[in-house]
Specification:
The protein is mostly helical and 219 residues long. It folds into two domains: 45 residues, Arc Repressor Mutant, subunit A (Orthogonal Bundle); 133 residues. Helices cover 68% and strands 2% of the residues. It has ten helices and two strands. The protein has a two-stranded antiparallel sheet with strand order 1-2. The N terminus is likely disordered. It comes from Rhizobium leucaenae.
């Protein structure tokens, strides 16, 4: 007859086999890239490091080396991603606007660029770095954005050309610079050279002025 202890003793439980963790490389790569962009937008390059990105992505830092080859590769990937940024924020369509002249084209691009820059903190950071930091990392990101914008113009303009005697490269650089300065100034002080940039009505006024400048040059 079995003892009372034997009767009361529970049978030894067999530990369950550990659940196998399925690693989705594409999802992990995207998480790392998103964390890196978020960190750059919030902290800048000063606190941009492997450990910080890994914490933000919730992954082992070795995966950053494996998938991106380290910080340089990660910056390169962010630069490549900026091309997608232009495609997403500045689509290859007319938005219902008939692009009959080169002025039509640049008006649409200027307004899209204004809205896109206002909505993207990382891109604002990159623009600010362009005029304050002369580093290889900043140059990569700046060149990637400039190349993507130039590609948009090439794809969209077709046979449209500026009037003879107009240096479109110089004029467009001034337009982009004006847009960038407006947005950066708004983020710092809510105004630019006395123009309030806080409400939707303020930005409508800025957009109207921007269109008039484009039309004043290109007609």
């Amino acid at each position: 007859m079995p003892s009372a202890n034997a009767v009361l003793r529970k049978p030894k439980e067999i530990p369950a086999e550990p659940e196998k963790r399925v690693r989705n490389r594409a999802a992990t790569e995207q998480a790392i890239l998103d964390a890196a962009k978020r960190l750059l937008a919030e902290e800048g390059f000063q606190n941009f490091g492997i450990n910080a990105v890994a914490r933000g992505a919730g992954c082992d830092k070795q995966l950053i080396y494996r998938y991106y080859g380290g910080l340089d590769g990660l910056v390169e990937a962010i630069g490549t991603n900026l091309g997608s940024w232009v495609q997403d924020r500045i689509p290859d369509d007319t938005g219902g606007m008939f692009l009959l002249t080169y002025g039509d084209l640049m008006e649409r691009l200027a307004l899209l660029f204004l809205d896109a820059l206002r909505a993207d903190p990382l891109m604002r950071r990159i623009v600010a770095w362009e005029v304050s930091e002369n580093t290889e990392q900043v140059r990569r990101l700046s060149e990637a954005r400039s190349k993507a914008l130039a590609g948009w113009i090439d794809r969209m303009r077709g046979s449209l050309t500026p009037s003879k005697g107009i240096d479109a490269v110089a004029v467009n650089a001034m337009i982009f610079a004006a847009v960038q300065h407006l947005v950066l100034s708004a983020g710092v002080s809510g105004q630019c050279a006395g123009l309030a940039l806080k409400t939707a009505k303020d930005w409508e006024k800025a957009a109207t002025a921007l269109k008039r400048i484009v039309r004043g040059v290109y007609g």
